[in-house]
Specification:
This protein is α+β, with helices and mostly antiparallel strands. The chain has a domain at 4-120. It is 76% helix and 11% strand. The chain has a five-stranded antiparallel β-sheet with strand order 1-2-3-5-4. The radius of gyration is 57 Å and the shape is rod-shaped. It starts with a strand and ends with a helix. The relative contact order is 0.06.
Length: 268
Amino acid sequence: MEVVKNTSLVKVFKGVPSVSHYVIAEYSKNDKDSIARLIRAHKQDFETFGPLNYELQEVKAGKGISRRKIYWLNEQQSYLLLTYLKNTKEVREFKIKLINEYFLLRNSIAQPPQNCPAADNMSTRIAGYKGQLALKKKEIERLRFELIQANEKLKEYEVVQPLRAAVLKEYKKQIETQKHQAIMLEHNILDLAGGYARLREEILGSAEALELVANSLKERIKTIDHFIKGIERYMPAAKDVAKTATKHAKTNNQWMMVSVKQKLKGER
């Protein structure tokens, strides 16, 4: 189908006001091949707003002829493409110009003059809009299905959330119990440490008392030794008497031990 020229930018292609990706590349200061790759990469996004139309143009290439693919984007598709581009000064200026061009074209189509050939294409344009409406309905159905899924997940969350809250409450209760037990254990350890400290002081006091007794006994032993030496010096016979007394004492102790052992054996 031949492209009908309506404005400097927007043309009616297959009954739909459209703009070529060549024009978008030129006015937005972008490479046309990059624009084409961007359209192919997001093809499903563009088809949300209607069929992705294109034409193949023959161009001379040296001695032969090659074909180039030109995408024709409708109003929504062209605006979508501009949102994918970097918002440079050229892109912003082109957006304003393109919006104005679409506005002028819609007015010219809305009120075509009598006997105007463009009026004959009204049914074609209506068919194109019906196609876009069908795609919109499909999109609405998809969104409705996603909404149902979201509601189901919300119901699951409403059921699971109280259980999570109960588990969290029990967990917090256990933590508080463990904290209380830890505090009690700390107090018990402190009490035990205090008891050991007091016992240490008592033992030290007993040791000091025993040390005083031991020192006193040592002094008394020294006095007795000194007294015995004096007796031995003045009465040599007293030495023998002391030895004899010591010997008798040892003998008596030995017999006493034997007697005790025999008594213990008899009791068994």
